[in-house]
Design brief:
272 residues; alpha+beta; eight-stranded mixed β-sheet; six-stranded mixed β-sheet; 7 helices; 14 strands; globular
Length: 272
Amino acid sequence: MSSFMLPNSQPEVQVNLTSDLSKDQLLAFPAFKNWISTLQHSLSLQQEKSHTFSAVPYALRKIDIQAVDFFGGNRLGFVKLKAEVSNDNGESLPGSIFLRGGSLILQPDDVPDDSETDKHVILTVQPRVPAGSLSFIELPAGMIDDSGTFSGAAAKEISEETGLEIPSSELLDMTEAVLSKLEDHAEKLQQAFYPSAGGSDEFVPIFLWQKRVPREQLKDWQGKLTGKRDEGEKITLMLARLEDVWKTGGRDGKVLAGWALYEGLRKEGKLR
């Protein structure tokens, strides 16, 4: 096991690595870069007298890497770490973190050609072993890499999961449409929702795609088998009526967040 001092850290922060992870791999990992940059900026705000912790500010003291997972060869996928964040009074903040980076979610709404009201949402049904399920119902989603735009990555992911080719120009980032209007504080958080901020850095922008399609197309999508089979994806498409999707996919936080954003934007007249 090796260690190094985190660059540009004050006070100095020692990073302890696992035997299968190098300093260069960690510092190049997009999820780590985004997390450490966001945290350091938030800690710096304590210098303002109006900050809640200005009297006895917290500082990052140490990072212990506990475990890592690699995807497809040598690409770093997940990092489990413990960050020691404390103040001079010996008070600490919880710092057990699962780093995985951002994810993308697409809410595809389809309207039959002869109807203005009969909207459906395309969901996916697939095994999710962490939840103990072989048929988990959810919105199409995937991980964000460090290249391209969020909308471009969303279009690529939905093509892989559903077989639908969607121009990125037809996507609406619902999270950005809502959060960009807020008078937020100075922390540099993503324009996205955080499904498990108590234990993970994951942030999730939710995109909307609306398309008018023939009714026969809806029938073809129901039960269609999709996914990248050579990578172990076994996905079945499922259609749910828009007004029922919060019940049909009620176990999936992404469904509930997407539905809430959609309803909020619709009521404000920001959706066609």
